[in-house]
Amino acid sequence: MAEEKVMNRWLVVVGAVLIQLCLGAIYAWSVFTPALKANGPGAVAAVYGPGQLGIEEARFTEMNEALAQPRATLKEVSAKIKGTTDETELTQLKTQLTGVKTQIDTIVSEYVPKEKVDALSYGFTNSRTQAIFSAGLAAFAVVMVIAGRLMPKLGPRNLALAGGVVLGAGYALAGLMAGKSFAAMFILIGLVGGAGIGLGYVVPIAVGMKWFPDKKGMITGLAVAGFGFGALLWVKLAGAWGHLIADLGLSTTFVIYGVAFFLACLVGSFWMKNPPEGWKPQGWEPPKADGSGKPAMGSVDFASEQMLRTPQFYMIFLCFVFGAGAGLMSIGLMKAFPMKAMMSAGMDWAAASAAAGTAMAVFFSLANGIGRIAWGTLSDKLGRKTSILIMLATQGIIVIAFQKMAGTPALLYVGATLIGFNFGGNFALFPTITADTFGTKFLAQNYGWVFLSYGVGGIFGPMLGGKLGDMGNFPLAFTICGVLCLVAAGITACIKPATSHA
After folding, report:
1. How many CA atoms lie within 13 A of 104 on its CB side?
2. How far is it, in rounded angstroms, from Cα 303 to Cα 445?
3. If 0-12 CB within 10 Å is exposed, 13-18 middle and 19+ buried, where does residue 111 land?
4. Helix (DSSP H) and strand (DSSP E) numbers for the chain
């Protein structure tokens, strides 16, 4: 009778994907930034539809027809500014750009009431929009460590639900109360929203591995792929697919997303419960000790304080820093460096910009999601250590070779695909090697500590790329990160099973 009461373990996959789709909202932040930065008639008209602008559809169409030529000129002049280094020409182009922007503002002012423009002009700087995003990432990483310690007390279902409540409340309250206040958005979306993501992120991973000890890589890959594809979903709903911002406004979109996050996490949390004590999949037996008598890898459970005293933790941590740092550096330069390389090869700015944008938005992004599932599934066959070694070694070679590949669109697409594929693999392989090395009992706590390496990589990689990019030495940034990935592959080869507590 007890066997009949055990739920279908594949329902855990459904719950995990639902939860992770919501948590991936942190990487959808870019869809909100144009509306937050809009300031003045022209910028506001580029973001919102007729309902938000307070004009009829026919007037909106008429306005856009009048704006077609000035907007084309604006795009052309902006392209020339980015493509020239001549100071005299640059001054002339900037003067022309100011004139075109004034012309656009004048046209929009003839159609859109001033009070509407004022109401929709948030006027946030780049620094402010990035500060909110950075606060979310920081809160995510820090709270994830705390969440790991809370999970044994609250249980996975309650912790996942708490994540949905906090995340949903952050967005919904921002929509209802924040208005144009940077401080309110920083707190509600950045700190509160990021905390919600940190509370919920590790739950589907930890629970999934307990239900799928025979397919740890696959279940982790599916869960974290939901996180990656969730970003795409929320970007498209707010923009190209659902036009939520254009039609309903920024505040209403925040409220809708807050409610959606809560409801999806509520449903997903229903299946976030651990299997009964002693349960195992039919036909599967846990790894047995080898001939030396030492316990099998992952059969000894390490609490966080025990894990932090092992060399294996620091080896895994460093490998994740280098793997994540290389990927995040590449993301930061995926537009600027290929554009420079293709323009140096004789391509015009518009074509180079389109190719670089496609490389990032299509090839890298899709491969990033697919890589999470593929590497996780492969690791169940090849083993975690072998998979990470291959992933880091190939990433190192590709990142170094990318210097030569970026100047040709076809090779750029191949390079972006491979880098994205391997970058996604980090999020499937490092949770599973943490479980394989230190056991699944305390995985929620332990992976929170390991995941801090992603934050370190997120600082070191982009800053290195940005600094060397400012110096005009993009290739050196790729070389350094590529070499560090190869070093990480060597470190991975030296990781031995942690089979006894320090």
Report:
1. 24
2. 8
3. buried
4. 23, 0
Task: Give residues with Cβ within 8 angstroms of 164, minimum separation 6.
Answer: 19, 22, 196, 200, 261, 262, 264, 265, 266, 268, 269
Handedness of CA 333, 229, 367, 351 (dihedral sign): negative
Render 429-442 in DSSP notation, one character per residue: HHHHHHHHHH-STT
The candidate with the shortest Cα–Cα distance to 234, out of 282, 189, 192, is 189
| Residue whose token pair is 């390079």 | 415
Distance of alpha carbon 364 from its chain centroid, rounded?
A: 12
Neighbouring CB atoms inside 10 A of 124's CB total 21
Question: Token match 């793997």: residue?
Answer: 323
Question: Cα–Cα distance between 105 and 39 in angstroms, integer?
Answer: 10
Q: Look-up: residue for tokens 């609250």?
A: 154
Q: Please provide the size of the chain in residues.
A: 502
CA separation for the pair 429, 384 (Å, rounded): 7
| Assigned token pair, 152 | 């044994």
- 394, 323 Cβ separation under 8 angstroms: no
pLDDT at 361: 77
CA angle 481, 486, 491 (to 5 degrees): 120
| Residue 159: Cβ-neighbour burial (10 angstroms; 0-12, 13-18, 19+) | buried
289 DSSP assignment: -
Nearest to 147 by CA among 23, 298, 318, 325: 23
Q: DSSP code of 406?
A: T
For 58, residues 6+ apart whose C-beta sits below 8 A from its C-beta are: none
Say if residues 142 and 134 touch (Cβ distance below 8 Å): no
Residue with tokens 């500590």: 449
- Give the C-alpha distances (Å, rounded to integers) separating 263 from 29, 198, 420: 20, 18, 31
Looking at residue 250, its pLDDT comes to 95
Cβ neighbourhood burial of 348 (10 Å; 0-12, 13-18, 19+): exposed
State the virtual CA torsion across 165, 170, 175, 177 in degrees, nearest 10.
110
> Can you list the residues of the chain whose pLDDT is less than 70?
1-4, 82-83, 85, 289-299, 500-502
**Cβ atoms of residues 154 and 272 within 8 Å:** no
Tokens standing for residue 40:
């003045």
